[in-house]
Task: inverse folding
């Protein structure tokens, strides 16, 4: 939201209705979701609630709104859903990486070369770890 002293720019607020305009409610909902996503990311990095509130205030969010955003983002249901998503995505990425590596190994000729998709496996394991640490 620009013009109200709020400098929080989610970057993806440019979705509009069919007639090309965005309603005030749509804008507020998207801004709220962006702030909650920001708070969740900060929690995932190990930041405290007070530090996240201070960050949101530094971005121009009023204290009562920042406190509410942190309370919503820190609720067990939101954290559980976020952790579940990270666990699921991590498992899928790691499984795809392992599957591609095994397939490459089985397709290689004797003495030939094969590919181990280390980046995909590590990304999946990283997401799994993040999900495990984020779970309440």
Result:
């Amino acid at each position: 939201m620009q013009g109200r002293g709020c400098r929080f720019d989610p970057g993806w607020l440019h979705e509009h209705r069919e007639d090309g305009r965005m309603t005030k409610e749509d804008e507020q909902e998207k801004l709220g979701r962006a702030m909650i996503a920001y708070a969740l990311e900060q929690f995932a990095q190990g930041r405290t609630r007070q530090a996240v509130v201070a960050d949101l205030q530094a971005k121009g969010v009023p204290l009562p709104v920042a406190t509410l955003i942190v309370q919503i983002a820190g609720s067990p249901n939101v954290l559980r859903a976020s952790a579940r998503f990270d666990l699921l995505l991590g498992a899928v990425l790691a499984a795809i990486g392992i599957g591609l590596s095994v397939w490459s190994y089985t397709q290689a000729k004797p003495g030939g070369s094969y590919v181990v998709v280390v980046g995909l496996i590590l990304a999946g394991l990283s997401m799994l770890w993040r999900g495990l640490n984020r779970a309440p």
Residues 1-74 form one domain. The two ends are 32 Å apart (CA to CA). Residues 98 and 133 are 23 Å apart (CA to CA). The chain has five helices and no strands.
